[in-house]
Task: inverse folding
């Protein structure tokens, strides 16, 4: 699990994703996954690039594909579902609107500085 979590973080940082947070949801009964990654990009282009890099590296380095990927090129929010890890990549305004961190505030948060 740790290798996968590190690879996702590195993939986000490769494309200069900002305000990255990992939320450990394993102690919550109603969790949709074990972990959430939440980050943001300054534009829909950067959001798409971060999502593409996560998918590329997970496939090439670990042989994993997401069970679902929603969003797309012009999206302000891309969600990559790797069963037990869900990656949310937002445009800043969309992140503020949905406030996922508040919805899952019972989880254990770990924030990562921009490299």
Result:
């Amino acid at each position: 699990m740790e290798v996968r979590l590190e690879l996702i973080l590195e993939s986000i940082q490769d494309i200069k994703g900002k305000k990255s947070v990992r939320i450990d949801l394993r102690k919550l009964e109603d969790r949709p996954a074990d972990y959430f990654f939440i980050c943001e990009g300054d534009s829909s282009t950067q959001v798409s690039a971060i999502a593409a890099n996560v998918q590329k590296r997970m496939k090439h380095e670990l042989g994993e594909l997401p069970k679902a990927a929603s969003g797309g090129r012009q999206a302000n929010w891309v969600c990559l579902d790797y069963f037990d890890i869900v990656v949310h990549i937002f445009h800043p305004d969309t992140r503020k609107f949905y406030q996922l961190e508040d919805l899952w505030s019972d989880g254990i948060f770990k924030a990562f500085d921009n490299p």
Q: What stands out?
A: The helical segments are 2-14, 44-62, 92-98, 100-103. The chain has one domain: 2-105. Residues 15 and 46 are 7 Å apart (CA to CA).
